[in-house]
Amino acid sequence: MFKRFYTIVLLIALGLASCKKDKPAPNNNTNNNNTGNVPTPTTNRAELTKDSIFLYAKQVYLWNDAIPDYSVVKPRDINSSSNQLDNFNALLFKISQYKINPLSNKPYEFYDSNNDNISDEPKFSYIEDLVASGQIAIVNPKKSSVNLNGEGNDTGLNLSYFGSNNSYIMVIRYISPSSPASSTSLTRGDTILTLNGRAFGRELNSNFDNDIFSIVSALESNTVTITGKKIGTRSSFSYTLNKNKYISSPVLKDTVFTETGGKKIGYLAYARFSDETNSVPALNAVFQKFSSAGVTDLIVDLRYNGGGFVSTAEHLVNLIIPSQHNGKKMFSEFFNATMREGKAIILKNQQRRDQSGNITRGNYFDGVDYSVAGNTTNIDKKSGLTNVNRVVFITGPGTASSSELVINSLKPYLGENLKIVGRQSYGKPVGFFPIRIDKYDVYFSMFETQNSLGQGAYYNGFVPDRVVLNDDHSKNFGDKAELNIAQAINFIKYGSFSSSSVASTKGTSVSSSSLNSMKSLDTKDVFSREFKGMIDYPGRK
């Protein structure tokens, strides 16, 4: 239900815009592995786009070996919607469901819909309508409020909801740095009572399923009037926020904890693996602070980080990993056999583009090496912490792709000194680069990553070493009493987690029992405003 709403809102907006049209791939058997089983000629634009989606999938999709012939898939027969984007998505979904994961007996791209009964979207692959952006990896509005260039165009409110479906509360998950909301007193954990004059929540015994349309409409509007109660004091607040463009730092919070005996622990809450221009200076500044302070251990909070650029993930690994491992393997990317063997000649139709979507030079076939050796990244230690001891990652359902890549890449070198606290991560060990078809960028799952020990395939996500069932909104990022952070500090100090449901820091106790009555309904990150994906460009290395 929720995803369908986002699609409706997006399509209304897209109908008002236009963009330069790229030609679909030509319909000939040089683009198809099934010689003699090719599309018949057509001049229908939608049919050409469907054919192209199929033809590209047959060569570049990670699990292309499971895709049947064109005569079986019948791309042009997918016409149940009057909106062609819906039909293209339906085709992509059909293609994504052929390959079965033997461990789960379900498709690798099976999307566990949980509460909203949506089962017709791939878990990893997706299509972006370039009317919304025209840039590579811009991440359209239904995926994020801050894109992978660090550009925001909203009020900066990011929400969660708790309770039961008929008796829930909404709270602020976080405020995007430099956004309109960041200039107010609003903070993580504040309770939302009304949006644009409409009341929500348990006081009304209202139903969340009935309210979601109004909530999202308010968040996407140009002006949002918000009222509620401050965390702690319960004092009332009221603000009118105007949607605006801004550049947001990917760092939500960084600080240094000084423990008994002078032990220094660095804490970083990181929102997204944005492009190097946005992320690298911010990360370098944080780790320079850590280094100057004498930090020996780390807590990296990725609970809302859905991923982004592989190059930025590499940079974070290099900042964290001990210097003694310089030059060793970090991870490898595995493309399908068609691409590894240089047979994906359809990629000759894909011009190289810069981050703004402008054609630069060449294409994604000629001279591009898709072998494992050609797509192996080694550790390149130039800065950061030279000898980190223990590292704890905080994860949640929104932790995906590049975030999981960082954790998996560090595991072989940190061993038992690397732990995970929080909730199970999303499970996305695959990445992609955009395939331009007409006025769309199609993000097929294209490669799977493995660390230096050949470990990968974490399609169910990482299970935490210490599970904290509920996201502790009662404390802000960087608060030592926050349940996840307190557990992380306990491990760093003592080598074990607290067995109690009470996390105690400096005499202040926070009981998780107070959160049990506010069970998170956001098991699928309905309000997540972060992109989930892992983007890498061919020939970058």
Would you report the number of β strands?
Answer: 29
- The name of the CATH superfamily of the domain at 251-340 and 369-428 and 448-505 reads 2-enoyl-CoA Hydratase, Chain A, domain 1
CATH class of the domain at 251-340 and 369-428 and 448-505: Alpha Beta
Query: What spatial form do the alpha-carbon principal axes imply?
Result: globular
Give me some keywords for this one.
Pdz3 Domain, 2-enoyl-CoA Hydratase, Chain A, domain 1, 541 residues, six-stranded mixed beta sheet, six-stranded antiparallel beta sheet, 24% strand, alpha+beta, 11 helices, 29 strands, disordered N terminus
General description of the model:
It comes from Pedobacter puniceum. One of its GO terms (molecular function) is endopeptidase activity. Among the domains are: 97 residues, PDZ domain (Pdz3 Domain); 208 residues, 2-enoyl-CoA Hydratase, Chain A, domain 1 (Alpha-Beta Complex). The protein is built from eleven helices and 29 strands. It is α+β, with helices and mostly antiparallel strands. The strands form nine sheets. Strands 5, 6, 7, 8, 9 and 10 form a six-stranded antiparallel beta sheet that branches. A six-stranded mixed beta sheet has the order 12-13-14-20-21-26, sandwiched between helices. It has a four-stranded antiparallel beta sheet with strand order 19-16-25-22. Helix content is 22%, strand content 24%. The radius of gyration is 23 Å and the shape is globular.
